[in-house]
Amino acid sequence: MDHSHHMEHAASSHGAHGGGDMGEMCNMNMLFTWDSTNLCIVFRQWHIRSTASLVVSLVAVVVLAMGYEALRSVSRRYETTVNKRIAALPHEQSEDVTETTPFLATGQYQVAAGRNSHVVKAVLYALQNFYAFMLMLVFMTYNGWVMIAVSLGALFGYLLFGQSTSSTKDNACH
Questions:
Q1: 137 and 67 Cβ atoms separated by less than 8 Å
Q2: Contact (CB, 8 A) for 153 and 64
Q3: Whole-angstrom Cα distance, residue 162 to residue 146?
Q4: CA–CA separation, 103 vs 13, rounded Å?
Q5: Distance CA 149, CA 138 (A)
Q6: Cβ atoms within 10 A of the Cβ of 27, count?
Q7: Would you say residue 1 lies in a domain?
Q8: Coiled-coil regions in this chain (predicted)?
Q9: With a threshold of 0.90, does the pTM exceed it?
Q10: Which of 76, 83, 95, 170 has the most CB atoms around its CB within 10 Å?
Q11: Is 170 a member of any domain?
């Protein structure tokens, strides 16, 4: 029994079920490639359809990766500043706490200040992890051009924002 006409029908009607032309679908590579034909970066809406859109997207990826390094720098500066200000606070209620006591209102102690700053540090930490995982997804397009753009963004970001940071990576992703 020949069922080839069923397969032909399924193949020819597949485009209608997908809502569009097969040429417009995102190319989902699971192996390394340099081909950018119908490349989508993380979202279906970020669809590379031309050389110009590839170049603009690669520049955007470089800037995004630089932004990650900027966020890491902001987080480090915040933590350093807060630690210095908390160290300057009195350990307990005393007569020498004045309106000019740095960082917190009169009467707050190092423990309370540490708890408050820990919430901000936790938010910054969560943002860094989210950002790193999103960059990992960008990298996982398995497209060589995009991988290079992520790496260049990390390079330029570190050159601009990593002056006070070890070059040893301490984050699990990106």
A1: no
A2: yes
A3: 22
A4: 66
A5: 10
A6: 15
A7: no
A8: none
A9: no
A10: 76
A11: no
- Return the C-alpha torsion angle 129, 142, 10, 6, nearest 10: -120
3-state secondary structure of 143: strand
Model confidence pLDDT, tens digit, residues 3-39: 555 444 444 444 444 444 555 799 888 899 999 989 9
For residue 27, the SS3 value is strand
Is 32 inside any structural domain?
no
Looking at the 3D structure of the chain, how many domains does it have? 1
Residue 142 CA to residue 31 CA, distance in Å, equals: 6
Shortest CA distance to 67 belongs to which of 24, 128, 18, 116? 128
The answer to whether position 17 is within a domain reads no
Residue whose entry in the numeric block shows the structure tokens 């398995």: 142
Confirm if 162 and 50 have CB atoms less than 8 A apart: no
Residue given tokens 């990298």 in the structure block = 139
Instruction: Name residue 126's beta-bridge partners.
Output: none
CA distances to 10, 72, 81 from 122, rounded to whole Å, are 51, 13, 16
Q: By the 8 A CB rule, do 35 and 146 touch?
A: no
What pLDDT, on the 0 to 100 scale, is given for residue 89?
74
